Amino acid sequence: MTTAPIPDIEFRGVAKRYGAVTAVSGINLTVPPAAFVALLGPSGCGKTTCLRMIGGFEQPSEGQVLIRGNDMAGTPPYRRPVNMVFQQYALFPHLDVENNVSYGLRQQRPRLSAREISLKAGEALAMVQLAGYGRRKIHELSGGQQQRVALARALVNKPAVLLLDEPLAALDKKLRTDMQIELQNLQRELGITFVLVTHDQEEALSMSDFVCVMNRGSIVQVGEPSEIYHEPADLFVADFVGKTNLLTGKVTGSSGASVDVRLADGSMISARSRGNLVAGQDISVSLRPEALRLEAPGDGALKGIVRNRIFLGSTAEYAIEVPALGTLMATSSHQAALGGLFEPGEPVAIGFADGAPLAFPADTKNGQKQRETKDVEIVS
Whole-model pTM? Predict the structure, then answer.
């Protein structure tokens, strides 16, 4: 019989309160070894509090946080097999690059020799492609290079878990994209668990193996990025992760996993049901912009007028005004590639593939519906 590996991180009924404010409420989460996990959610959802409880900078008000099977209650940060990369990097300006990287090594007991410290620091710098930068001053480095120094300092002690608190927030778009790829490659090479905190949906979806979506101190959904995007558990996830069009409507009937919906403009569509929807119920329908198919006036479930167009090279984004439904967003790659772009003021018919619309109970948006606490396990 094969024994299941010990999870790198476990939350068992974890809650965190600050006076009358509950930042985290009853979280159960299991993270397997060598996973890249993103904690994603809006400001104030509890994601950074969870990260700080893993790192030992906060202690749970209730429950247990375990790292590799060991309860971390009362264990200070410097005694945990964890290192953290902060949003502002927290580098020492008076030390050169090598001494920044080796700072943690110098605190180890028993003491390491100066040669061993220098060797380990050099290996860590080579790991983040900064070999030969050891004698540079911090102010002589670019933002991307400083971020790599912070990574090298966090990795030089070979932690079991690396915590990343929005580490790319200060970088420009191109450099941020480059660093996303480098972090992915680094995590795979090292084979250790990375936990990334971010409110940037694109960052979470592009970098991680698993995304943990949080709202109001609770876990809403955990899954692979494609699952989170294409199969959101509720209206909050559909609305928060990526772009979507939300249409109001009413259920008129159901057939299996689908419901018939009358939209606010009177048109009828079929949508995949999320939740127990019944005839007469008010709902919200989610439609991703890339799921919309724009055509010349004629056939199409919806009809509207192009109000704005943004040409982005490989794609074109449209804002389309639909009577009684408001402004819908549509993204088209096919028309942009062929040069067949619709012009502002032009009428269009809007179609979409079967299964593209998702119907949610209208009262679940923004987590207004009470959720039950449940165990969440990430399966690698």
Answer: 0.86
Q: How distant is the alpha carbon of residue 165 from its chain centre?
A: 12
Q: What is the CATH number of the domain that holds 323?
A: 2.40.50.100
3-state DSSP: the chain helix, strand, coil percent, rounded to 5? 25, 35, 40
Helix axes 114-127, 143-155, angle to 10 degrees: 130
- Is residue 45 included in any domain, yes or no? yes
**For residue 182, what are the domain limits?**
9-235+372-377
Q: CA-CA distance, 101 to 94, in Å (whole number)? A: 13
Confidence at residue 1, expressed as pLDDT on a 0 to 100 scale? 54
How does pLDDT run across 260-307, given as a tens digit for each residue? 999 999 999 999 998 889 999 999 999 999 999 988 887 667 899 999
Tokens read off for 202: 């694109």
- Structural domain total, the chain: 2
Please, are residues 268 and 262 in contact by the beta-carbon 8 Å criterion? Answer: yes
Q: Is residue 96 part of a domain?
A: yes
Tokens of 362: 């209208």
Beta bridge partners of residue 18, listed in sequence order:
21
Residues 39 and 161 in one domain: yes
